[in-house]
Prior knowledge:
By secondary structure, the chain is α/β, with parallel strands linked by helices.
Amino acid sequence: MLNIVLFGPPGAGKGTQSSFLVESYGLVHLSTGDIFRTNIKGGTELGKMAQSFMDQGQLVPDDVTIRMLESEVNQHSDAGGFIFDGFPRTTAQAEALDVFLNERGTPISCMLSLDVEEEELKARLLNRAKTSGRPDDANPAVIQKRIDVYNAETAPVASHYATQGKFTGVDGMGSVEEITDRLRMAIPA
Length: 189
Ligand code: AMP
């Protein structure tokens, strides 16, 4: 089973690249941001709770996010593997994911971390706002907050996987196709 953590700051291209990798490798794509947005659209209690954090560019609390992710994994018992996109975003989430997947005998295979310059991230998010309809992409102050939260709380998750020998950095600058090729080369055979 191939379980990939696709990692990187907001606007790094995780969602875009996930759709290519899903096709090539037959994986299930789990984006916690997408799942929260589906809940917001559906007006669920989870969505209402998550929205207040998302609108401010802050992380949704770990306990809720971990429970939601585990429930999604459990709903795909026949999956050949997963791409985790936007999860784990804290060391506590990474530790919980390790315990959960190890119990299932399907640990993380690798973390691929997209490396993109901050100015490029901001430009990509503002551009995406034109079509995404996401309020958190349209507001420069919220974008800055998301990048700051990434640097403070999420970036340390890379060392969690580096310690396990599972971390690979991938240049996330360039065309979508170039970046897909680099990711393919980094995925273990
Ligand atoms: P994304 O779609 O990955 O950019 O996530 C959008 C927003 O959803 C983030 O800014 C957070 O507020 C929330 N979110 C998504 N994934 C997580 C996570 N793993 N932990 C906490 N909050 C998350």
